[in-house]
Amino acid sequence: MGIMWTPHRPDGYARHPLHQGERIWPETNCYVDLWIEALHARGLDPLAMLGFTVTQDFEGDQFTFFKVPLEDLETLYGLRVQELAIYDSVEAHAAEQLRRTSDGGLVLVEVDGFHLPDTRGTSYGTTHVKTTVGIVRIDPAARWMDYFHNAGFYRLEGADYDGAFAAAAGPLFPYVEFVKTGRPPLEGRALVGASLDLMRRHLARRPAGNPVTAYRAAFPEHLDRLLARPMEDFHLYAFNLLRQLGANFELLGAHVGWLDGPAEAVEACRSIAEGAKAMQFQLARTVARRKAPDLTDSFDRLERAHDTALGALNRHYG
Asked: Terminus-to-terminus CA distance in the chain, angstroms?
């Protein structure tokens, strides 16, 4: 079975519930959000893939930019993701790969968000930022493509299309992946069983210590830098630390709930998601006022919630 996209045009596309309703973090990062919607459009359940989020760590200057492991996509959904070598135009390669799949395909390309109208209000026309889109249809002659990006499904055309691919033309080619279908996706009990196996495997790879504790130790130095820099730097900082931490655990909580796992872990994951969002607001005020905050209670709650979540999961699955 190939990747089937519904609807045939972006107009009226219905997002997955992970991107609707009362979400603490409506978007996570471009790669994971893209896969949530791409799987959803194919009629597959992206909640099954999220066990890898238990491995998130503090990397010294950021929390892990969490991405679904490619082997998990093949295990659960029979999808093989491979790097696409670019030596001609990105458009030509994307069109060729999409032509090769009679029932649908997907090509993932790093582009400049400056040229994506769906980022209006953030990067469109104002800021050059790398982001990943998933192309499902492209017509280089007519200058349009349909693509997944962040939490939605869109069409790029005209001058924006020209700008996106002009930027992708060099001097260095972007990183590009393409998706091939192998065996049929797992369903029902087989899908749940495979997700449980992956959860156990990822738990064995979780950080040895509490990443929030490590972040807390590094935070005073981070804060000194934030207070010495403009507000624009804070937005980048918040995305790579607080958003990645909070969004990661909101997705982990959704996955544990899907597995009918321990309620204690689900609640603790939500506490981390909410606590990271609250800390983001606190830090935004701090940077705007140039006044150091007291985040003792915030860090205490995040640390306890992390210990609770991972402890409960390890007892239940480990």
From this structure: 34
Quote the number of domains for the chain.
2
Token pair belonging to 121: 């209000």
* Judgement on whether residues 235 and 103 belong to the same structural domain of the protein: no
Phi and psi angles of residue 281, each rounded to the nearest 5 degrees, phi first: -65, -40
β-strand 130-139 against 107-112: which pairing, if any? antiparallel
Same domain for 101 and 133, yes or no, is yes
The conformation of residue 58, written as its DSSP 8-state character, comes to B
Can you tell me the distance from the alpha carbon of 43 to that of 25, in angstroms, rounded to the nearest whole number?
A: 23
Question: What integer pLDDT is reported at residue 12 of this predicted model?
Answer: 79
Report pLDDT digits (tens) over 21-47: 899 999 999 999 999 999 999 999 999
As a whole number of angstroms, the distance between CA 178 and CA 167 comes to 20
Within this chain, do residues 192 and 264 fall inside the same structural domain, yes or no? yes
Q: pLDDT > 70: what percent of the chain? A: 96
Question: Is the pLDDT score of 102 beyond 90?
Answer: no
pLDDT of residue 2: 42
Dihedral of CA 179/202/187/270: which sign? negative
The predicted model scores a pTM of 0.94
Amino acid at site 292: A
| Token pair for 26 | 């409506």
Mean pLDDT across 126-155: 94
Integer Cα distance of 166 and 173 in angstroms:
11
Task: Tell me the pLDDT band of 318, cut-offs 50, 70 and 90.
Answer: confident
Instruction: State which residues form the domain around 287.
Output: 188-317
**Do 221 and 163 lie in a common domain?**
no
Amino acid at 40: H
- Cα 80 to Cα 2, 69, 279: the distances in Å are 11, 11, 38
